Amino acid sequence: MTLVTMKKILAKANKEGYAVGAFNINNMEILQGVIKAGENLKSPLIISCSEGAIEYAGIDYLINLVTTAAKLTKIPIALHLDHGKNFKIIKQCIDKGFTSIMIDASHYDFKENVKLTKRAVALARKKGVTVEAEIGKLSGVEDLVSERRGIYTDPAEAFEFVKQTKVDALAIAIGTSHGAYKFKGESHLEFSILKEIKSKLKMPLVLHGASSVYPELVEKVNSHGGEMENAHGVTDSLLKKACKLGINKVNTDTDLRLAFTGALRESLMRNKTSFDPRKYLIMARDDITKVVERKIKVFGSQNKA
Ligand SMILES: [Zn+2]
Prior knowledge:
Bound molecules: zinc ion
CATH topology: TIM Barrel
Strand order of the largest sheet: 1-2-3-4-5-8-10-11
Oligomer: single chain
CATH class: Alpha Beta
Structural class: alpha/beta
Strand content: 15-25%
Shape: globular
Order of helices and strands: HEHEHHEHEHEEEHEEHEHHEHH
Number of strands: 11
CATH superfamily: Aldolase class I
Distance between the termini: 12 Å
Number of domains: 1
Largest sheet: 8 strands, parallel, barrel
Number of helices: 12
């Protein structure tokens, strides 16, 4: 089928109380691995491309890959710009066929965030494209996004922000952070804030920086020549609870990177005489499918396609 809007996918998730994974892709193998998991479990999917992914692969390559994937499958797929900060790229995405964009002006003060978000909403509405914005700050470093310390979203401010901007989905800060090194001690999410925001807004809410950084994925990287120390993220049980309490979209990038890297390292080390990229990329693609299937089950979007 053709690409659908993220708004449509999230409306059903919000109504029925589950979350849909937004999986970051930047090449064909990762995309195919993600799509296969969605098909296996009959889950809708949000395919995310960051500005960094666009810089790496080229916007036309990414759009054509995802459009082709959508055409070949029956599950609903939205194509989403993750962390749009550059209006030139945001406009390109809207004009060229993305069905959803995120405007990330969360690093500015409230007034400026509202102003830039409204500008993005005006551009997107003309083409029926969904808009996600963010309020509150996440800590951590991922791709081109970096913040020194996290600040929780203020529920009253979130309400005012949505009233003024009329965005379709809102990313909130409840303690997650970007990247593979999320928490110093035990992972913790501020569920009271999530509950308060959901009761005020009743709209699709988004969780960023929510990869689990599964220990077995880190171990696979490290036991095959990698060096990642003390990486850890948000546990499956915390994520499950967040989805039950009103999160409808969970961004996942780090776990895919870990799965891909671990499988690639392992297959290269095992097959020392092979020089056929298909031989080792196929293992990386299969491990992407496995980790995405696990995510879909945690988010609750199985059989929701
Ligand atoms: Zn993010």
